[in-house]
Amino acid sequence: DKGGHKHFMAKEIAEQPTVLGEAIRHYLTTDGTDVSLPGEELDFTKINRLTMVACGTAYYACLTAKYWFEQLAQMPVEVDVASEFRYREPPVTDGTVALFVSQSGETADTLAALRYCDGKADKILSVVNVAESSIARESDIAFPILAGTEIGVASTKAFTCQLTVLLMLALKAAKQRGTLEDERFADLLKSLNALPGLVNVALDAEPQMAAAARKLAEARDILFLGRGVMFPLALEGALKLKEISYIHAEAYASGELKHGPIALIDKHVPVVVLAPKDALFDKTVSNMQEVMARAGKVLLVSDHAGLDEGAEGTWQTIQMPAVDPVLTPILYAVPAQLLAYHTAIAKGTDVDQPRNLAKSVTVE
Ligand code: F6R
């Protein structure tokens, strides 16, 4: 049942305010002032290294969480794609906790990576959507993301729920490790509680995203740029777009542009810049100007303050509500998803069943 939507993907994108709210309520105390983890209490002060492993979109959720665990909880984090991790035979040293992220909980490479860590890591954790899955069953603690069934092959609500649960784990880690001031911790929980409402506001910008997507649909190649915590989201935006619209898209950390990819820029290449007005905004604006100086067409996704400062000379803009910089990847996932969705619609491709792809990859 698509609930009145044309595609499961559209329905699942629209469900995000609701499912994010449920996930947040599940992991916060009733008064909303602390994170309460289900099941066994996890001692983050004893963790020397967090190794996160996943595939595809779930891998990009891990890459995002690396910024959070490092910046908020001062924890050393390693992130890898499961198909590489499992065959590299990486040493799993004392004090390592391994965390596997998977919507289906059945991805063959991720499951094999988990089994490789079994008996080597201090603990096996997982962040899963399907609670009865193999990955959940074989973990010491499985954290559900509570996204509900995801049918669209391109992952949307599972991604934002993965991010939200990972952020709450990072916040819990920060609290236990004493790396975050009480006031900042309280502030972030407040912002988290307000997030579903802001995701709704982001969804209201769908007409602008659809209009932008109709122009993107004419391109052969599209670049995505992001800096800091927005870099993994740029990777996710490019993946989403290529999966369902079959347009070649690539993502780079903004600062990497001049180390090669800028050679690709000309008037035919749209560049989607995901840049909230955060501490790194000015640096991204200067990368954007380098693109525009070579006739590149910039689609800037930012907030009011960012557009005020950086919109001049851009090709198109999309405005997001302002949000705490820590939470931007969750909010900006909405334009990343809807740009891909409407580009696919404009191209007439099969949004829910893209060619060559399966929802659950149970063979390597
Ligand atoms: C992208 C997508 C895939 C999956 C990947 C991992 O939209 O859906 O990249 O994220 O195959 O799947 P799970 O999360 O089930 O392990």
Automatic annotation (TrEMBL):
Its EC number is 2.6.1.16. It is found in: Cytoplasm. One of its GO terms (biological process) is carbohydrate metabolic process. Residues 40-179, 212-354 form the SIS domain. GO terms for cellular component: cytosol. It catalyses: D-fructose 6-phosphate + L-glutamine = D-glucosamine 6-phosphate + L-glutamate. Catalyzes the first step in hexosamine metabolism, converting fructose-6P into glucosamine-6P using glutamine as a nitrogen source. Homodimer. This is Glutamine--fructose-6-phosphate aminotransferase [isomerizing]. The gene is glmS. The chain holds residues 244 to 607 of 607 of the full protein.
